[in-house]
Amino acid sequence: MNIDEFISQLESLASDAEQQLASVTDSDALEAARVEFMGARNGRLKDIQKTLGQLAKEDKPQGGKKLNEAKQRITSAIENATAALETSSASSGPQVDPTLPGIRPHLGRVHPITQTIEHLKEIMGKLGFAVVEGPEVEDTWHNFVALNIPEDHPARDPLDNFYLTVAGQQVDPSAHNARLLRSQTSTVQIRVMENTQPPVRIISLGRVYRPDEADATHFPMFHQMEGLWIDEAVNMAQLKSVLRMFATNYLGSNVKIRFRPSFFPFTEPSVEADFLWNDTWVEFGGAGMVDPKVLAAVGYDPEKVSGFAFGLGVERLCMRRHEVSDIRDLYRNDARFLHQF
Q1: What is the pLDDT along the chain (341 residues), one digit of tens a residue?
Q2: Nearest Cα to 201, choosing from 124, 139, 262?
Q3: Residue 201: which domain range?
C-alpha cells in the first residue's frame, strides 16, 4: 500500500464517522457508532492502523500524522454528538412556566427571648456596658462562696439547685469545687473580676437553672441579665440612674419604677426594682452596691474601689413588652404562638 491510498482511506473513514455521528438520535446509536469507528478490537480506525506497517519507511511519519488527525476528527465528532444528545434530552423534559404563581417559602422567626436579649444588649451597650459570657456549669466557689453566700443559706440547699455528680461521686455542696448548673448569672461577674482590674463595666446574659415548679411566672430554666460597674467612687445614685434609663428605653418613657429596700448576701445596701404593669407593681430584678467581702474575694481593695451590680429577669421583661401572661407559652414551641413575634 502506498501513502496516497492510506491517506485516502483515512479521509473516507473520518468523513463517514462525522456524517454518521451527526445524525444519531439516541445514546444507543451513539454507542454503536463509537464502537464501529473507534472500537479497540474491530473498529475501522484500528483496521487501517494495522496497515501502517505496510508503508515505505520514508512514508511512515506522514502516515502516522494523518492517522492521528483522523482519530482526532472522529473523537471530536463523538464529543459533539454526546453534547447534542444531552442538550436535546434536557430541552425535552418538563418546562418551567414562568406565569405560574410561586410557592412562598416558610420563613422562621427569631424567638422572642432571643429578640429581647439582643435588644437588652443594644440598650446597655449605649450605656457603656460591654457584653461578656460565662459557663452554665459552675462550681460552688463562683456560684456561692465568692458571692458571700454562706453554707447555711437557703440558696445553697441541694433541693433548690441542680447539683451534678462527677464520675458517680457523692455530691458535697459544701466543697468549693462541687459542680452545679448555675443558679444566677452573678457567677460571671466573679470570673470577670478575677481576671480584670478596675474599671469594670459589663453585662452578662444567659440561662440559669433552679428546680422551680413550672407555673405562669416560674420555670426551671430562665434567663437573666447581670450588670456590674466597678470603679472609684461608684454610688447608689448611679445605680438608680442606670436602671431608670434602662427601663425607660426598654419599657417606654411612661413606665413607673420604684426601689424597695431588700437583702442579698453579695450586695449592701440592696434594693428590689419594680415596674408598674396593668396597675400592678411587678418585680423585675434585684440590685445593690457590691459587698466589700465580694470585692476582697476577687482581690480588689474595698478601700479604693466600689461598685454596683444588678440582675434582671429577661422573661419578665419580654412578657411585659409583648403582653404575655404565662411564661410557659415562651417554651411550648407552639409555632402559632411564636409566629406573632
Answers
A1: 688 888 888 888 888 888 888 888 888 888 888 888 888 777 888 888 888 778 888 888 888 888 888 889 888 888 888 888 887 765 555 667 788 888 888 778 889 999 999 999 999 999 999 999 999 999 999 999 999 998 888 888 888 889 888 766 667 767 778 889 999 999 999 999 999 999 999 999 999 999 988 888 889 999 999 999 999 999 999 999 999 999 889 888 888 889 999 999 999 999 999 988 778 888 888 999 999 999 999 999 999 999 999 999 999 889 888 888 899 999 988 888 888 88
A2: 124
A3: 112-338
CA distance 165 to 156: 16
Tell me: do 7 and 129 sit in the same domain: no
Statement: the pTM of the whole predicted model exceeds 0.85: no
**Domain endpoint, select from 91, 122, 152:** 91
Length of the chain: 341
Residue 306 phi/psi, 5° resolution? -145, 175
Sign of CA dihedral 147, 152, 155, 160: positive
Looking at the structure, tell me whether residues 203 and 330 fall in a common domain: yes
82 and 116 fall within a common domain = no
Query: Residue 161 maps to which CATH number?
Result: 3.30.930.10
Which among 91, 123, 142 is the end of a domain?
Answer: 91
